[in-house]
Amino acid sequence: METNKKELRQKYKAKRQELSDAEIDDLSLAVANEVLKLPIWDKTYFHIFLPITEHKEINTEFILHLLSGKDKEIIISKSDFNTRNMTHFLLTDNTKIKKNEYNIPEPVDGIEVPAKKIEVVFVPLLAFDKAGHRAGYGKGFYDKFLAECKPETIKIGLSFFEPEELIEDVFENDVQLDYCVTPNGVYPF
């Protein structure tokens, strides 16, 4: 049983690589349909990640459409790999998106939004467990960012795959998810 983050990262990166583009779209749409069931639609400020297509991440375009259809304020980030800090910008019709050296699509600039204002965060992950812990890419960007958010900010993982029983090497600064959404349903924690 792979239960530490390093093994889980390898396992889920490999599982993702097996997915075709059509499967990614189908699974991403199924996740978006499940997101509709979450008790989050009274909130205004939603943070979302743009997918690294090379890593076969979940296509968040479907969730973006939901958010804009519901007139939500959508926030995307730019990552600084030296400081491990993320800067958050309002997504508008004028936002220019450019891929950085790691193929992460990012806003070039824009209206900055403080982390404390963000009410809902969709969190990328490679794996998660039944207690709401996640394994990301291991850079710590999201743990740092989520720690800057208000405690009541709703943290929602998005996953193509179902949970592992338990991720063993969880650190105290790892931020726990409130929900994780898979193509088959919502896991509340």
Automatic annotation (TrEMBL):
GO MF annotation terms: 5-formyltetrahydrofolate cyclo-ligase activity; ATP binding; metal ion binding
Cofactor: Mg(2+)
Catalytic activity entry: (6S)-5-formyl-5,6,7,8-tetrahydrofolate + ATP = (6R)-5,10-methenyltetrahydrofolate + ADP + phosphate
Top-level EC class as recorded in UniProt: ligase
Family annotation (Gene3D superfamilies): NagB/RpiA/CoA transferase-like
Keywords: ATP-binding, Ligase, Magnesium, Metal-binding, Nucleotide-binding
Binding site for substrate: 52, 57
Family matches, as Pfam families: 5-FTHF_cyc-lig
Protein name per the record: 5-formyltetrahydrofolate cyclo-ligase
Origin superkingdom: Bacteria
Keyword Phosphoprotein: no
Family to which the UniProt record says this protein belongs: Belongs to the 5-formyltetrahydrofolate cyclo-ligase family.
Entry's EC annotation: 6.3.3.2
NCBIfam families, sorted: MTHFS_bact
InterPro entries named in the record: FTHF_cligase (IPR002698), FTHF_cligase-like_sf (IPR024185), NagB/RpiA_transferase-like (IPR037171)
BP terms from Gene Ontology: folic acid-containing compound biosynthetic process; tetrahydrofolate interconversion
